[in-house]
Amino acid sequence: IKLILSMVEFTYFPQGGGEDQIMPSEVDMLTPGQYASKVVQMMLIHLRGKLDPIIPGIIQLLFKKLARVIALEGEIARSTEDEEDKEYYADTARYTKTVLLETICLAVYYNPVLFLSVCSRLKQVTQLFKLWIDSMKSLCSRQESLGISALGMTSLALVPQHQVPPELKGKGILQLMSTNVQQLIELKKMEDNEEEDSDGTESEDETQEFEDVDATKDAINEKHMEEIRGLAQKIRDVIHEDMKAGQHDEYLDEFLEPLYKLDKFQFFAETMDKFPKINPQAYQDW
Question: What's this model's pTM, rounded to 2 decimal places?
Answer without folding.
Answer: 0.77
